[in-house]
Amino acid sequence: MRRSAIAILLLAAVGAATGFYVVRSNERRSSMAEPRTVRPERRMVPATVNATGTVRLRVGAEVRVGSQLSGIVKKLNVTVGSHVAAGAIIAEIDDAPVRARLAQAEAQAELDRAGMQRAQVNAARAQELAAQGLIPVQQQQDLQLAFQEAAAKYEKSLRDRDLVKVDLGYVSIRAPISGTIASVSTQEGETVAASFTAPTFVTIIGDNALQLVAMVDETDIAAVRRGNPVRFTVDSYPAQDFFGAVESIAPKATIVSGVVNYEVNAGIRRDARLLKPDMTANVAIQTAQHESLVLPADALRRDGEQTYVLVRGPAGPERRSVVPGPKEAGMVEIRKGISQDDVVLLLPPEQPKPADPRE
Q1: Partners of 153 in the beta sheet?
Q2: pLDDT in tens, 252-288
Q3: Domain CATH for 290
């Protein structure tokens, strides 16, 4: 009885395994029998001019910040790579000498004010006495001139005091623009001398300071216009597209090894923070739009230097050589080789690895 039960269980297990194999085989045959297909679509696609370029700093984007005062650097608030906002304090010079000069200027102004008041009283008294004929007119005039000189001297003292106050404002060195610190040439505790030239504290590269400079061949430059959309990639981020627009075209050509090119400057619209100066870029400038057939990128196949697609034919898939154009949003322009009525086979999706029965 026990042997019969064991035999029944074994037969049931073999039957289940056979059924699973048959189902899986049917699924595979079904998937192989029904390949994915697509028909070419007719769309408006951009006409582009391709070029190589370089990411560069804009003119005036790099600012060297220095000190107008001589003294000891009391505090330095930035390091290389840090971001600063316009008006932020970069460094501070020891203000003790300037404050001492300010106190001296204020004392001198107070002294000159007292002298002016004394001369004013003497001039008023002399005017009364001269009116009564008690002093000569010349003496009255001398005292009046003395009062005017005292008033001018007091005014000069006030201007000297204001000049020292201006120097006091230079004690705090502020960022003139928002940007990233590219270099720091002075450290805390160092003495700077501003007798002849302003010593450089830091170098700031402003925000949105980068632009794209593309070298466009003379055969293509006629199609490029200001405002044309630009798309480019860099070697550091090959899978990411960066976008911009043409801002200017150099009127003078650049000739290298007999090849005539024109510099096309393009502004970078977004994601510029990922880019660095002097990066090499592969540039596509959209100059117009035209109607063309497009296919998904996974419909194209390569055989060496040749690009082709598989088209459904009466006797099975037929190989057709095609001339692809630019790729955008997963779709590739097909310039030659197929018609809109063709049915194109897509590459099969990646199949998951079968489970290991031993696991």
Answers
A1: none
A2: 999 988 899 999 999 998 777 788 889 999 999 988 8
A3: 2.40.30.170
